[in-house]
Amino acid sequence: MLKSSRGDLNGFLDEGSHIKGELHFEDTFKVSGKITGSVISEGGDLELYEQGEIEGEVRVRQALVSGKVGGELRADRVEITSTGKVTADVYTPSLVIREGAFFEGRCSMHADARRDEPGREKVARMPLAKER
């Protein structure tokens, strides 16, 4: 569970509910339903439960993923739990992938990764074995 800076819950999308479009919130938002579109919060935390699904763009302070995310995920901290399935490009300086989690996509992990404009990412390069 994430610790919100203020501890306030802005909302909850329950299983069986579906939002299409843009969701903006300030502190903490919990999702067990489905969101197709954008989830945006400069200083807020997103908790995506096992039944939850997001397809689109996610830009939050912290993301705890136990459900499914597809598209693009930008956060200061991302944690994918053992039940989480992420098929997205992830931009974060802090990534935790628990045993059993699924991640497929690109990952950029520099200090300002979340704030970079799409298409202007700085992707880390691993040296080849003969360069080491």
Helix content: under 10%
Count of domain modules: 1
> What is the CA–CA distance across the termini?
39 Å
Structural class: mainly beta
Strand content: over 45%
Helix count equals 0
Mean pLDDT: 87
From the spread of the alpha carbons, the general shape counts as globular
Largest sheet geometry? 11 strands, parallel
Low-confidence stretches: 120-126
Task: Give the tally of β-strands.
Answer: 11
The ordered string of helix (H) and strand (E) elements is: EEEEEEEEEEE
Radius of gyration, whole Å: 15 Å
In short:
The protein is mainly beta and 132 residues long.
Primary descriptors:
single chain; 132 residues; mainly beta; 11-stranded parallel sheet; globular
Give a description of the structure.
There is one protein chain. With 132 residues, the protein is mainly beta. It has one domain. The chain has no helices and eleven strands. It has strands spanning 9-13, 18-24, 28-31, 34-40, 45-48, 53-65, 68-80, 85-91, 95-97, 102-104, 107-108. Strands 1, 2, 3, 4, 5, 6, 7, 8, 9, 10 and 11 form an eleven-stranded parallel β-sheet that branches. It is globular and about 35 Å long.
Secondary structure: elements and pairs:
Elements: E1 9-13, E2 18-24, E3 28-31, E4 34-40, E5 45-48, E6 53-65, E7 68-80, E8 85-91, E9 95-97, E10 102-104, E11 107-108
Parallel strand pairs: 1-3, 2-4, 3-5, 4-6, 5-6, 6-7, 7-8, 7-9, 8-10, 8-11
